[in-house]
Amino acid sequence: MPITGVDHVMLAVPDLDAARAAFTACFDRPSRPGSRHPGWGTTNAVLRFADSYLELITVVDRAEAAGRPASRRMTGVSDAGGGWVSAVLAAEDLPATCAALADRGVPVSPPLDGVSVRPDGRRRRWRVGAHGEEFRSGRLPSLIEYLDPWPGADPDPAELRHGGVHGVAGVDIAVTDLPAAAAEYAVLLGGPPALGDRSATWTLPDGRVLRLLAPVGSAGPAGAGDPVAAHLDRLGPGLCAVALAVDSPAAVAAAVAGRGVAVRPGIDGEPVVDPAGCAPIRLVAARPAPSLTAGATR
Predict the structure, then answer these.
(1) Predicted TM-score (pTM) above 0.70
(2) pLDDT, position 272
């Protein structure tokens, strides 16, 4: 299956300007104004890294957004106060990938073409699959393929690693039925996971980690304080945390705390920050990864 890794992650927010300011204050690096998405009712801003990016996205045209299941998910998450929407997986030959998934018992919405329009009028075409009810419900991530490069020069890679932050290292996805979800993702990702007591984990071709997490318990003390259960209660299944690769988790956490952003321990003991107040980010040590040509860095 030609799914090559995690292209980017999506965070829906009710106030795009406030979210941009919060992330700039947290990581001491600007987000740039992004693009309008005609036909989807959304616009974004982008926090770029060397080989990936974090997309802050908001709904600006509710009537237009109502026509797309994916945009309806973004509307619902924004109306709930904001939060992670989904990982977006990079795919090669998206039509063939979607057809192969259907043949293997995991039907997904077929590719749909779209375009991003920057404030200066520059445009970039892309196509996205798995954008229907499977995405709206949080059951599966979407798949993306870019049809042309983004015009203009890329920033200096050193600038993109400012503050010791390299980029997305992995994603955590909250699920209610781990065996069923793991079976479906095994088809999606082309192989079985490493199984834990309440997790299923894949290392993708780009070196990033995709992990399904089930809640500790459904009620009472077993689930008390469980971030997975809290996410499921608030937003339902779907992306619940993102790991950022950094030079030194302790040093980046100290720098973030020095800027007035709260830092807390995560479920694996790593530092966790939440600049938007609705989307936890785990800080993990960077490790060598395969060289990428991630289209989403444009």
Answers:
(1) yes
(2) 95
